[in-house]
Protein: 2-phospho-L-lactate guanylyltransferase
Organism: Nocardioides marinus
Amino acid sequence: MSDTPHAPTGPTYAVVVPVKPPSRGKSRLVGLADGAREELAAAFALDTVTACLAARHVGAVLVATDDARFSAALAATGAPCIPDGDSSDLNATLRQTAAEARRRWPALRAVALCADLPALDPDDLDAALEDPRISGERAGFVADAAGIGTTLYSAPWEHFDPRYGEGSRRAHLDAGAGEVLGELTTLRRDVDDLPDLQAAAALGVGEHTRRVLDALGLF
């Protein structure tokens, strides 16, 4: 697998995506069997990475995951994978992954993205990446649909310091990051529970998630 990024027009970004091993992901999808949750977590990540790679302004995607078997499926999409350096601390993982992305692709700009965006439209991602709050000299972010969390964070390499976690929208604002406004519906639609999944399905999810939903008879 080559680490050479493709060449989109306009500003180019290296997207870093942290992916929990699917066996440990999406515990809040209450009412589904463990195997179903695992399949959905894997599908969400695959659809998120696939959408990233289809965006015009994304030059490369680097995934951090401790699941060696699943990393092969992710790498097959065109996104190289590295081990999760600190699985107990999401922000530490993102900083370490961004440092590796900078080593590989120093000409690109860092973007952190959640791995649970199965309805992500590459056009929404491109629109966010074109926003001056993302492409400017300081950090910028996109809040989730609930207006509490964060789905996307970006900053120049030397200022890359994400604040994901409970109440991350407020934490990013307090740290001086600029908030990207506008609809960006599919970029904001992360999935934590079944109502979120139903909302994502209504928007139109990627092929991996759609396949699992059909097999489960959901939405």
Residues 13-212 form a domain with the Spore Coat Polysaccharide Biosynthesis Protein SpsA; Chain A fold (CATH 3.90.550.10). The first helix runs from residue 34 to 54.
